[in-house]
Amino acid sequence: MSDHDIKHHIVVYRNVFIALLFFTVLTVLVSYLEVDPTKDFISGAVFIGLVIASVKGYLVAANFMHLNNEKKMINWTLILTIVFFIVLLFMPLLFDINNVGKDVDYWGNGEEQTEVHH
To answer: Of all residues in the chain, what percent are helix, strand and coil, respectively (each to 5)?
Structure first.
């Protein structure tokens, strides 16, 4: 490798490191936001967290695992994996959509609990 190639790789790795730091800080900041319409629903927060984690995973896989320069078959396999992952991302949203308008106690600390006296 020439000096130019090594310097190019160092720049790429540094930029990926800075991006990973940025997305980590963004994950922490987003965790404090109220993204769901009520406190009982958590699907919006989970969705945003998984999207940020997906971007970070792409950065690691593409640059540190050198998947940017792979053959077409590997790319199609990765695209299929991403499609299935997106389906998994929307599963919490589908669960909450089924409960819209219902009084659902996700955490088990609602008024419907009765005390047992001995």
So the answer is: 65, 0, 35
Number of domains in the chain: 1
CA 108 – CA 99 distance, rounded (Å): 15
Torsion of the alpha carbons at 31, 37, 41 and 44, rounded to the nearest 10: -50
Q: Report the C-alpha gap between 39 and 98 in whole angstroms.
A: 17
Contacts with 110 (C-beta within 8 Å, 6 or more apart), sequence order: 103
Structural domain including 22 reads 8-34+41-96
Assess if residue 1 is contained within a domain: no
Q: pTM of the entire structure?
A: 0.59
Residue type, 9: H
**Tens digits of residue pLDDT in 62-116:** 888 877 777 778 778 888 998 998 888 888 777 666 666 666 666 666 655 445 5
